[in-house]
Write a structure and sequence with these properties.
With 141 residues, the protein is mostly beta strands. It has two helices and ten strands. Helices cover 9% and strands 50% of the residues.
């Protein structure tokens, strides 16, 4: 989390300890409204473009930045209202190829997810940047 406007958290879907066993890793990113007023969020645009993702090998410190998708900028106009305490989810996939590019006998990665968007608070545009991290490790050693 980078600011207090919206809180972010992430987890591996149906794989709480985020164990990598050679398959794609499905990640759910939760974005929660920490304000006392509703926040307008361009969910469809963020879902299509995806977060900024950096994979960091915890042993070698090698870093790979994954490319986000291209999304129609007009989708930014489709605003979802997040009520105080409410949340929305962004789904993302880290492919097995993206994980396996790191050499070594086992996987031990930090995956950093960053979402940047212009949100609406009390009818005014506000820049949002939030981050969250999870750890991906080999399921078999």
């Amino acid at each position: 989390m980078t600011n207090q406007l919206l809180n972010m958290a992430c987890k591996c879907r149906a794989n709480d300890p985020c164990l990598f066993e050679g398959q794609d890793m499905f990640v759910d990113i939760s974005i929660t409204n920490a304000q006392d007023t509703e926040v307008g969020f361009p969910l469809e645009y963020v879902q299509r473009s995806g977060p900024i993702v950096r994979l960091i090998d915890t042993r070698t410190k090698a870093v790979t930045s994954l490319k986000p998708n291209l999304a129609d900028p007009d989708l930014k106009k489709n605003i979802v209202r997040i009520h105080p305490g409410g949340s929305v989810n962004v789904e993302w996939v880290i492919t097995s190829d993206e994980i396996q590019q790191f050499e070594g006998p086992y996987v031990d990665l930090s995956a950093e997810f960053t979402v940047m968007a212009e949100v609406q608070v009390r009818g005014k545009p506000v820049a949002f940047r939030g981050s969250t991290t999870l750890r991906i490790v080999s399921g078999k050693r």
